[in-house]
């Protein structure tokens, strides 16, 4: 399926990340409204978390722009270690501004992340909150399967070699 929204996806230089961190933090907080149990909420925590995400793998910190404005981002880390699968690509965070939900932006971000992960990995995995029905529906639609649980978190994974979304 084609994206329904004109969206430009790219990585950020450290300077760009620094300049945009507050905007990205605002998108993160808005996206988790009503789901705060799965998110950081204090501004200082959110900023430290975003820095940690970015520094962990700048090439996998993907930001979606619509009309020049950031509207979502996905943070992946390559070479994550999974007990069952060994080295995998891991999606740590993934948010789209609620004003832009259901317009294909999440799909576009995930597609770009998978394109990049598939250079080195056959699997991508993530943890999602058990009560996060929207995200679980999204990931299932994108071909992820639920393979485990730890407390309030559900583990999902997707085989990505020679596959497209
Ligand atoms: C998960 C999230 C990133 C999806 O972003 P999005 O841009 O709205 O997703 P898309 O528009 O690309 O959706 C693609 C498909 O996923 C499915 N989907 C998306 N949102 C859904 C929902 N609320 N309910 C059911 N299915 C949904 C649909 O099949 C959709 O296709 P369709 O609109 O043609 O039916 C977004 O809901 C979000 O930011 N959630 C809050 C933060 C979060 O929970 N992140 C995940 C952390 S693990």
Number of domains: 1
Q: What proportion strand?
A: 25-35%
Strand order within the widest beta sheet: 1-2-3-4-5-7-6
According to CATH, the homologous superfamily is: Gcn5-related N-acetyltransferase (GNAT)
What ranges have pLDDT less than 50 throughout 5 or more consecutive residues? none
Tell me the number of helical segments per DSSP (H or I, 4 or more residues long).
Answer: 4
Characterise this structure:
This protein is of the alpha+beta class. The chain has one domain: 3-Layer(aba) Sandwich (Aminopeptidase). 33% of the residues lie in helices and 33% in strands. The chain contains four helices and seven strands; from the N terminus they run βααβββαβαββ. It has helices at 14-31, 43-56, 105-117, 133-141; strands at 8-10, 61-66, 69-82, 86-96, 123-129, 145-150, 153-159. It has a seven-stranded mixed sheet with strand order 1-2-3-4-5-7-6, sandwiched between helices. Helix 1 (14-31) packs across helix 2 (43-56). The structure holds coenzyme A. Residues 31-32, 94-96, 101-107, 126, 128, 132, 134-135, 137-138, 141 line the site of coenzyme A.
Layout of secondary structure:
Blueprint: E1 8-10, H1 14-31, H2 43-56, E2 61-66, E3 69-82, E4 86-96, H3 105-117, E5 123-129, H4 133-141, E6 145-150, E7 153-159
Parallel strand pairs: 4-5
Antiparallel strand pairs: 1-2, 2-3, 3-4, 5-7, 6-7
The chain binds coenzyme A (COA).
């Amino acid at each position: 399926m084609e994206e329904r929204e004109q969206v430009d996806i790219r990585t950020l230089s450290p300077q760009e990340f620094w300049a945009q961190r507050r905007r990205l933090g605002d998108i993160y907080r808005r996206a988790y409204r009503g789901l705060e149990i799965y998110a950081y909420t204090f501004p200082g925590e959110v900023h430290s978390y975003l820095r940690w995400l970015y520094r962990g793998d700048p090439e996998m910190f993907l930001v979606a722009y619509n009309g020049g404005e950031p509207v979502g981002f996905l943070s992946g880390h390559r070479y994550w270690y999974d007990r069952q699968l060994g080295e995998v690509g891991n999606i740590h965070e993934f948010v789209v501004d609620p004003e832009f939900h259901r317009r294909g932006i999440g799909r576009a971000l995930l597609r770009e992340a998978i394109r990049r992960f598939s250079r080195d990995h056959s699997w991508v995995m993530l943890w999602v909150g058990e009560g996060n029905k929207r995200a679980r529906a999204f990931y299932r639609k994108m071909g992820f399967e639920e393979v485990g649980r730890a407390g309030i978190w559900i583990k999902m994974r997707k085989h990505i070699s020679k596959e497209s979304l």
